[in-house]
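Morning. Coffee machine broken again, so started the prediction first thing and wrote up yesterday's gels while waiting. Chain of 508 residues, entered below exactly as on the submission form.
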Amino acid sequence: MTAVAAISSSDTSARANIRFVLDGEIVELDDVDPTRTVLQFLREDLRRTGTKEGCAEGDCGACTVVLAELDGSGNGLSLKAVNSCIQFLPTLDGKELITVESLDLHGNGLHPVQQAMVDQHGSQCGFCTPGFVMSLFALYKSQSDPSRRDIDDALAGNLCRCTGYRPIVAAASAMYDIPAADDDWLRQPHGSGVSVTDRVERLRQIARDSSLELHHGKRAFFAPRTIDELAATLDAHPDATILAGGTDIGLWVTKLQRELETVVYVGEVKEFAAIRESDAHLEIGGAATFSDAIPAILEHYPLLDDMLSRFASPPIRNTATLGGNVANGSPIGDSMPALMAAGASIVIRSADGSRELALDDFYHDYQVNDLRPGEFIERIRLPLPGPDTRLHCYKLSKRFDQDISAVCAAYRLELEDGCVKSIRIACGGLAVTVKRATHCEQAMTGRPWTEDTIAAGMAAFARDFEPITDMRASAEYRLRSGQNLLRRLYLETRGDLTESVYLYGRHG
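Came back before lunch.
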């Protein structure tokens, strides 16, 4: 059982294992189970039952909370919605936790987000409502005039079986018209509000200068602060589980009931999350979240917008990392086909040094990759496109938002004088690993960009994969879809298809 050592806004001299802010007060925790979730802590330890458990895998959004951290300047706040059901408690260290109970306006009424949900009849059974409120709260604090697409995206990680979403979308627009104080919107027990200045100061008080190390029985949790320290920690604990966003590892605990003996958390290594650009590459740190990486990628590859807008949901993108997605190596991981088609490589680091490997060569079998004990993906090197390079990626799934792909196919195409100068094709979901369609590429390279070439490529595509059948799609569907997506690429490049997947069938 997690022990609450102290809850105090003034007594911060005693150094507890974990320290974070809740409702304006500094919470200190001792003897923490490294894989206890934030949701368990809220509901079972604090009895804050507004946050609900629905799926316990980051899919339904009923458990959504908001985390606040100091921004890059150190003088402001950065807020993000996260799924508390798969967020491990030690990762709260140095942050502020905001739950639906926090939106109290110090006892004087509902927060504008909550009032808008009431006014627009956005709640029926009410189970999902706290999660929607927190996702809308994150939107409320980050954008002052969101578009319909911004609203849809903000709600992509929240499921409701009652309302049909229309009144919730209406609440998202109406919440900005309800007056509220700009800063004093979070409660504390004594009835006064907590200003942004106060909250920044509290986060500064709990900022950690040294690495976090927790022990709970025979289990351990390490949070190094530099790349070198991370490499040394993994060298000392080569069998440790590397934790980034927890969007996969969280399910190992909540669904598979696995007990992780040693966890090494990479979220405190700031340099590990850096995104830089050289003359030839976009260099994305292994711990960069998708929320940070996606804008940088779209700046160079804007045609990936449709696929990346459907990559998980904001609470997942706010914590999931590009390096973690690549290292996990799921055949249905949506980032790898685009990266592989683009010709990306990965820099692998350990205490012994670094090595670079083409992403094509990283995967050997189902979730078997080239990482050795003590190694981690330090950064992903994405080549910058040439003037004639097009990178397209298409995702097929049963649900538009927040769903796992049946097929995800990516194409890097260069045409010259009406012929295929080069083409790289990578697909996920078709087989046990993400892989290149090399026979298809060879059948098309050097040939005119015509229907005959597409037909040849579609025929060769069948030689590249042995598709699988599962609950998402049959092998026949996957093969036929993979072939037809090549035709879609052809029609788009000819200008015959001009409407995006997102806009198809939508109005406004």
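Confidence is low (pLDDT under 50) at residues 1-16, 187-191. Going to sketch it on the whiteboard this afternoon.
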